[in-house]
Write a structure and sequence with these properties.
39% of the residues are buried. Helix content is 31%, strand content 25%. The strands form 2 sheets. It has an 8-stranded mixed beta sheet, sandwiched between helices. It has a 4-stranded antiparallel beta sheet with strand order 2-1-4-5.
């Protein structure tokens, strides 16, 4: 059963008098109980996509210009703040990248967990305290009664992230969005947090949308993988297709850049150049063309479409697009 459906989403930011799109015509769906990873370099639009779903874009200049975001068939985009506040924290929750800035430094851990339960449940104060202690136990925090009285700065990075997970699952949400939740943690703690998330997801049959740039995390966690580049989905498929049969030159380059045990290399492989900025985003052609080792003349003038190469596996690349107008030398069609 489909829980979340994103259709033709375009999210832009107003800079001066011009709107520049950080998410451009993105469509995907997420089934109940499914674990989906969105992967790509910094600046590819992953976090903007998650903020669009949560309706947390900056009001000064951020705006969804077209598309739909359907949660259980209900479009979230036209909802008011009051209507979204009833959904956020209850049906859909988010774990942010840096827990030190996501948690309020002037309120205790207990107060911040209690606020969620107070807003979305009818529990009494003693019941809220008891529930808060149980949530902290579920995420592996020792001395939960003591931790409730402490403040974010008194906890380690791993403990703060566990608190964020406890807050996220407090009301048994249908969908959890995790935006690079382990970036600031060391490898050992990262593994523990990811294992905890997977365990909670399976136990509660919760859908998870994990945003990351770490392909090792993706290989460990994902059922389905969405690869983004410059605001667009460039490849999409299940984990086996993505890792064992990559198609798009960007994904191939990402996988080649990962060091492997047993391989001897003088130098690590890197992708030349950088992701184009919002204000310099190409309006025609492939957005990866300047960094692509397989680029052709057509790639600069024809925008590739996301096309199926096999069941459940789609790629945005002219190499796998059966028909498109050919381009002569000099860019003439």
């Amino acid at each position: 059963m489909t829980l979340l459906e994103v259709k033709g989403l375009r999210t832009g930011f107003k800079i001066g008098e011009q709107v520049y799109h950080a998410v451009d015509d993105v469509s995907f769906s997420l089934k109940t109980g499914q674990f989906v990873c969105i992967v790509g370099e910094s600046g590819c639009g992953k976090s903007v996509l998650s903020l669009s779903i949560m309706n947390l874009l900056p009001r000064e200049n951020g705006k969804i210009t077209s598309g739909e975001i359907l949660l259980d068939g209900k479009n979230l985009i036209p909802l008011t703040d009051e209507e979204m506040n009833k959904i956020r924290g209850k049906d859909i929750t988010m774990i942010f990248q840096e827990p030190m800035t996501a948690l309020n430094p002037v309120f205790s851990i207990g107060f911040q967990i209690a606020e969620i339960l107070h807003n979305h449940t009818k529990l009494t104060k003693p019941q809220i305290r008891s529930k808060s202690i149980e949530l902290l136990r579920q995420v592996g925090i020792p001395r939960p009664e003591k931790i409730l009285e402490e403040y974010p700065h008194q906890l380690s990075g791993g403990m703060r992230q566990r608190v964020m997970i406890a807050m996220a699952i407090a009301c048994s949400p249908k969908l959890l969005i995790a935006d690079e939740p382990t970036t600031a943690l060391d490898v050992t703690i990262q593994a523990q947090i990811l294992e905890l998330m997977k365990e909670i997801q399976q136990k509660r049959e919760m859908s998870v949308l994990l945003i990351t740039h770490d392909l090792g995390v993706v290989a460990e966690m994902a059922e389905e993988v969405i690869v983004m580049y410059a605001g667009q989905i460039v490849e999409q498929g299940n984990a086996e297709q993505i890792f064992h049969n990559p198609k798009h030159p960007y994904l191939v380059a990402l996988l080649n850049s990962i060091p492997r045990l047993g391989e001897k290399k003088n130098r690590l492989e890197a992708i030349k150049g950088i992701v184009p900025s919002l204000v310099h985003m190409p309006t025609t052609g492939c957005r990866f063309v300047d960094r692509c080792p397989k680029a052709k003349e057509e790639c600069r003038f024809i925008s590739p479409q996301l096309a199926a190469v096999e069941q459940g596996h789609s790629v945005r690349c002219l190499l796998y697009q059966e028909s498109y107008p050919k381009v002569e030398e000099g860019g003439r069609r």
